[in-house]
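Predict the assembly for these two chains.
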Amino acid sequence: MSSNKKYWKSVEELNENSSIVETLKQNEFVEEIPTDEFLGDKETLEETSTTRRDFLKYVGFSTAAASLAACEGPVKKSIPYVVQPTEIIPGVANYYATTIADGFDFASVLVKTREGRPIKIENNTLAATNGSANARVNASVLGLYDSLRIQGPRKGEASISWDTFNSETTEKLENIAAANKDIVLLTQTFASPSTSKLISEFKEKYGNVRHVAYDAVSESAALDAYQAKYGERGLANYDFSKALTIVSVGADFLGDWQGGGFDSGYSKNRVPDHGKMSRHVQFESNMSLTGANADKRVPLTPTQQKLALAKLYSLVVKKNVTVNGLPEKVEVAIKKAASQLLKAGSNGVVVTGIQDVNAQTVALEINEALSSKAFDPNTPIKTRQGSDKAVAGLIADMKAGKVGAIIMSGVNPMYTLSNASEFEEGLKKTRLSIAFSMKVDETSSKAQYIAAAPHYLESWGDVEFKKGHYALTQPTIRPLFDTKQFQDVLLKWTGNNVSYNDYIKDAWGTDILGGSSFNKALHDGVYVGAIATETVETTEETSADNSTEESTETTPLGNAARDLAASAKSKGLELTLYTKVGMGDGQQANNPWLQEFPDPITRVSWDNYLTISKADADEKGLVNKHVANGALNGSYANVTVNGVTITAPVMIQPGQAKGSVGLALGYGKTLGLKTEMQTGVNAYELYQGFNTVQTVTIEPAAGEHEFASVQLHNTLMGRGDIIKETTLEIFNTKDKKHWNAVPTVSLNHEPVPVTSPEVDLWDEFDRSIGHHFNLSIDLNACTGCGACVIACHAENNVPVVGKTEVRRSRDMHWLRIDRYYSSEESFEGDNTKKDDISGLGSSLSEFGEMENASENPQVAFQPVMCQHCNHAPCETVCPVAATSHGRQGQNHMAYNRCVGTRYCANNCPYKVRRFNWFLYNGNDEFDYHMNDDLGRMVLNPDVVVRSRGVMEKCSMCIQMTQKTILDAKRDGRKVGKDEFQTACSAACSSGAMAFGDINDKESKVAKLLEDNRMYHLLEHVGTKPNVQYQTKVRNTTEA
Amino acid sequence: MEKVIHRKLGKNILHLGLIILLAFTTSLSAQEGDPAKGKALFNANCAACHQLDKKMTGPALRHVEQRLSDDQGLDRDWIYAWIRNSSGVIKSGDAYANKIYNEYGGAAMTAFPQLSDDDLNNILAYTAEEKAAPVAAVASAESATTTSNEGGISNELILGALAILFILLAVGLYIVNKTLRRFALAQNIELPEATQRTPLWKAFVKNQFLMLVTAIFFLLASAYFAFGYFMQIGVDQGYEPVQPIHYSHRIHAGDNGIDCKYCHSSARVSKTSGIPSLNVCMNCHKSIYEVAPETLAEGKAIGVDYNAEIQKLYTAAGWDDAEQKYTGNSQPVKWVRIHNLPDFVYFNHSQHVSVAGVECQTCHGPVEEMEVMYQHAPLTMGWCIECHRTTNVNVKDNAYYTKIHEELSKKYGVDKLTAAQMGGLECGKCHY
């Protein structure tokens, strides 16, 4: 069944005659080595004055000189501690629980430190409820070693001391307070109980103090709706593990919707268990990560989404709301979704990402009507607290000259505000402006004082994720630079001489812990207390703006839906601004790991772009095309919103709703980052009125943009059967061989399964003794979030190669997440269409139709790394035996033995081997973290940094398995159940990746090996991989 | 024989003799006391905090009784009371007791109620002795060096004499030969002329087979030596760099018998053995501020002043020996690294030290005899592999190995498994 489906990674592959796809299939290394470039052509060779004899002399001399120089080894120094801290043993890693809270990402994490250096972020398994480390959080450790960090406080351009800073600013603040002018604290969402307390103390001291929380990507509408309904400013908390029917209208809840962190709960019900799994219907305009994971995805423009939500409301809650103007097909889809919701009852949940108070209210009302178990109104999420109105009011006040002092922390309004120029104007009228910042960025460069702020790994802090769920931030390294955190300076300003550390301890002791141990909370990183009753300080800031919402509250049920339907009026092409999994709000734009991280959907790295549907692109004359080496080029388009125009490259996105376009925020930064990282365009300029949906006009612009897209890289030689997929119905009713058959080969004219020994070219090695490692990847649980990709980078010292090299298919990712589209919405449709094809003429037109069906393709994600084949094709072709097999199932790679013939890569059916074209850690052309002393501190000392001319690949984290074994040996015990981990499996919070020893029959992975859904990639090749995949099952049940 | 002066350790007998001699000559304010017994008691009870001539945790104690009676007018009874229960004396409000208590940072002296009057008299007798001049020790050390030198000279002498003898013999033979010829000439005896034969080298050149064989031999030999030469590039066996502080493993690990893992403690749990941090050195060297005279002399013989090396340690650790406190100005020591494995090799000390129970000396050689540390083993891959092939895995009492050992020994039909049989030769075990 599954093998009949047609999968494609790029629209280009649907073109039967594409020579590029053919070339890519045939060549592992598409680009010819430019020998002419360094050998020169005949003419230059003849012109040269060096004779053959001279040349030989030079060669001889330099060889002799080099070998002489090599005879004397360099003198290496070893410098031990003078006083060794008791908790540090050189060579042994320490782990600290801490919390990231940068205003956009909030997560409880474990930090791995070696010799005092934080080198990796891992999930804090104690804090499963608080959101896990996503790709950005995993990458955040590199931000600590950013060479462009500001190294001390500044006044304008000049460096000053903290003493000067404190005395000058305190004096000015006192003067401003005396003059009865406003002092404004414009900060990120801290969600920090102790900071709130501190700010109220600051208010007491200075009087006219206003605290404005500002989220770069606002969730204000959802906050307002929740506040109006439940009286507390927070975001509705959903636990998708309790939902069996999920209907999402424009909510990218596997991405950054309402702060993110919902994916692990979502994945729990995505794996069929006893014949049951959740059903997920998604209505959206951009192709989001969530839409890609949905069982049914309906592309709708933002206006249609509003109508759809209102319609859904009318069908589920049965209020008399009339909704007109939806296409019939969509109406049918909504009706089906509604009936499924009603059938599911309290097991259903509806979420929406429409930034509109009415829409958010409607979603809350539907969930209440369903009495949804997944929706918990008692523990609102606290990690977004910004108010659009308060920010708008502040800018107006600043322009009017009412504000005496502005103190900013964790925000970059000059970059993230669409009306940045107005803010700048206001800033000039402010007597004192202070920016706490790690960089000289767009905002801090305009402020009078820059207070050098520490990285979160150097700071203290606390966070209330959701009501009653607390977490602590602790420093994992002494501050690298002369920095002070916002709270410490606040304490100084309030005349308090305690450190923020003591302040937190004190605040927790009195307000939060209720007698429990602070040290225990600090050790665990998290603390779940009794649900607090007192409201948080920020609410009073926004309470002034609540008048409008109160009216909403008093209106009878159904009005919100009616208003929503009425407000849905399309005025043309609609732009939806979104945040990418790899970049978020753009705080970490100077992070090369994140820049090189390919977007899960488009597979494009180092860019943002205007996503547009094929139909709209054709209409506007916008194109995407692949050049000879498979790299992607796209047209430019001028995108205009209310007179503001930016020129962005165009990416034709299958599944983009017609009449809508998308553009990612977080790119186009120009200050505080290296030139290489200054990528993309700043979409915040179009983020007017904090509205993610804007009406736009699009004009083609001159020029062609070069994308660094990896979607056509590493095509598996045209071999099919990559993804196995089936429906829940078939999965439940039919035999395994029907939907997950083992491929057969003919032996004596009898079909024999490829797994049987008699059809094998190799003799089997007995692996039943000792450990035998397997990695299992569940295609149902994998959301494609990419946390594993970054974790792999951090663990294995994978180099960053830069945009031009990625374009040349030379990306070094050991682990890639392939994204496959399949054309038909349903299997049946796909299959009947394919079966009906007769003859070439017909096939061309039919496949052509399938291409048109790329309007709304189904998506599947498949992480692919070295498959560690027991019968590995790479091992047999290595002329120097640099790659060989271990008895524990790992395919070893001895880098020092490799001479770089690249035969192995050519012979690998999975295309997972990566060649070091350059010395990425010693070449100024690659100005990324491996090329500066600070950035090198993040390298894992247990894994060698590979040199130029060497093949590398996934090692199945042999350094981690070896460590686990050694720990057990040293303790004289057996290795515990599921104790083995790899970087990717440890980073996977959705449970898609399971790693372990299949000789331990109790282990999870041994059980998964026996699962009916288990298959191996390209099983018919007979490589016997040690990576298993679990067939993807889609819940296509239509009610 | 090396010794360091330790407050708990005795001095050598010669020194002791001198002291006894001096003890009789000095005025004995400490009547009835036996300084020899007193010394033993002092070392057993007091030396952890007191030194005769040097301020330590407590004050210097030479002539303490005289000093107290002269300066403070305190008698021996006061001393008895103080030693047996110092906190009691302090509590009683005694002025001097409180002064001393505060001067030494408010740390009360341990009470010694078990010491009898005789014991205390003995100790006081010992403290009343004059300081001995360390002349004898130096002299004895010098004599030691001369004797050792004598042995060397005698060997050379014998060889020289033999050489002269051979030369004389050769000359004699030549002269005899010459004289005999002259006799023959004088008596007209005709000596048979040697027939002109083809020279050996010409015959050799003419014999092509021999030439071929020789050429092949030379080529093979030169290839062998060239290979040998190139293979030792990058092999630093015997590397013995000069270190910033002359640290003698011979004294510490050899003579004093300190366990390797006392200082290199992380070898038990970590991949690195760890160069000890200076606070580990200071655990002992806070009280060992100089070496015994013989040791010092031995050092002088090889051009090293051990006491100066200890001073270097103090400078590095920021220890003010006179004030007995840390100044905070530390200068980390930049040791020259001797054992360098390339980055692409993963080696874990704890695997070998804790799990396998391999002696440090197996790889690092006779460290306890090394005055200056050098690289004993070649640290080449062949050397590692050789050991993995021949060494049996230490599976005793280790639950990790129980199952795998049983299965593997059945598979290979052996009783004991080598590291290689356990998979210790796989590339990926050390290269990742």
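The first strand of chain A starts at residue 7 and ends at 8. Chain A has 36 helices and 45 strands.
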